[in-house]
Amino acid sequence: MSAIESSTSCDIRTILEKQRAAFQDREPYTLEERCELLDRAIGLLVNHEQDIIEALTADFGHRSPGFSKGSEVLSPLATLQQTKAELAEWMRPEQRRARAGEAWVQYQPLGVVGIVTAWNVPGYMVFSGLAGALAAGNRVMIKPSEFTPHTSDLIARLIRSVYAEDEVAVVLGGADVGQAFCGQPFDHLLFTGATSIGKHVLRAAAENLVPVTLELGGKSPTIISRSANFNEAVAKVVIGKLLNAGQLCVAPDYVFVPQESVDAFIGVAKAVVAKFFPTLKDNPDYTSIINTRHFERLQGYLSEARAAGVELIELNAGAEDFSQSPLNKIVPTLLCNPGDDLQVMQDEIFGPLLPIKPYETLSEVIAQINARPRPLALYYFGNDAAEEALVLTRTCSGGVTLNGVMSHASTEGLPFGGVGQSGMGAYHGIDGFRTFSHAKAVLRTAANPA
Ligand code: NAD
């Protein structure tokens, strides 16, 4: 059995030992074997698209089926297929220069990789992590989030249906199970979740000197330059913010707008929402907030900002009444220049609220960004090469999309990861393969014939 209902530390250790024994018992998986393991994951996504969409809807209250299909099925499917297509090239030893003899780097599987995932795009995180870890020839143990019980349970059943427990296993449970999981002597640990929890994970991993990749969160800023195609920029920011109702680690968190263009930003944002989300409560494309705790957290940001005199602009084209919102849907709301001391400007928002920060000069924007912890992503809209270069060289974020939002994260050829408080290490594509491999240095010295 590959899935355990709320596993104990002892259960987790038993599976780990079984996987490690199986790993050590034989030659590393060949290219063909790795492709066959990836094919099984591909088969799950192809054959269970509807099950995955329904499980996510059950977990969120309402989840856009189109978004679920794109993010939890098609996107990891593309990742798995691209991984298969490029794997032979990634596995090839790399020749290096040597003063004498022959030198190369040989990529070797690490052994057993642990993967802990968050709730916001659970299918995507499980299958994209799996793609990299299997491609590198490892055994894999996965601990999905307890906040999406239907999806996590489905993932456990699906994985169990195609993988033996010593190939890929799923461990279910809450924070206590996560804690027990991260205390195990894995050969590598990929953790996706909050920065605050990432600190505990790093501490737990240190006990066993387990190398970790931490995929964390943060406040990703967006800059709209005076040189930008303004209407297009506002539309991309607003639509990006409303995907999964803002519950994405790379969602634009807050936006810097030239001070003379704030009214225009509000006008265009209203028009964009009226066009794409004429209604919200019954709109199949508008997703609920995951649970009451997060719904109340977001309402708390709004109440505090309102009490502080911040102007709040609801993007509610149908003038719907949200006083009763049984599905935890929240009205997309712009917050005009909230103070940096307010909670909405301190925490990662992870919801459909968008603070607008008016600015006069770009250097003032860069200073404000650099006064905060390094973000997971940064977005710059503009057509000024000097300004663009300044933003790229003077700020430090996990990744950047220029004249768009979030797309760098789904570009498999790019490493995906944070920096500083937003994480460490990276995966996706060849960078995932390398993260989950040991790059072994080999030197063959010139030997005299026997
Ligand atoms: P979370 O950190 O609360 O939970 C993530 C996982 O960690 C869950 O499986 C949970 O059970 C487990 N966990 C909880 N406490 C633990 C502990 N003490 N030790 C070990 N494991 C523990 O995060 P969340 O609320 O599920 O997700 C939201 C956060 O994740 C946001 O900050 C978001 O930005 C971030 N995130 C980052 C990425 C990325 O790729 N960088 C992607 C998605 C989400």
TrEMBL record:
- Residues annotated as domain Aldehyde dehydrogenase: 4-442
Keyword check for Electron transport, yes or no: no
Q: Which domain of life is it from?
A: Bacteria
- What Gene3D superfamilies does the entry give? Aldehyde Dehydrogenase, Chain A, domain 1, Aldehyde Dehydrogenase, Chain A, domain 2
Keyword annotations: NAD, Oxidoreductase
A cellular component term from Gene Ontology for this protein is: cytoplasm
Tell me, what's a Pfam family for it?
Answer: Aldedh
Point out the coiled-coil segments of this chain. Answer: none
Q: Does the keyword NAD apply?
A: yes
List of catalytic residues: E215, C249
Any single GO BP term: aldehyde metabolic process
GO MF annotation: an example: aldehyde dehydrogenase (NAD+) activity
Concerning its family, UniProt says:
Belongs to the aldehyde dehydrogenase family.
Listed name of the protein? Aldehyde dehydrogenase
What species is given as this protein's source?
Pseudomonas laurylsulfatiphila
Classification lineage: Bacteria, Pseudomonadati, Pseudomonadota, Gammaproteobacteria, Pseudomonadales
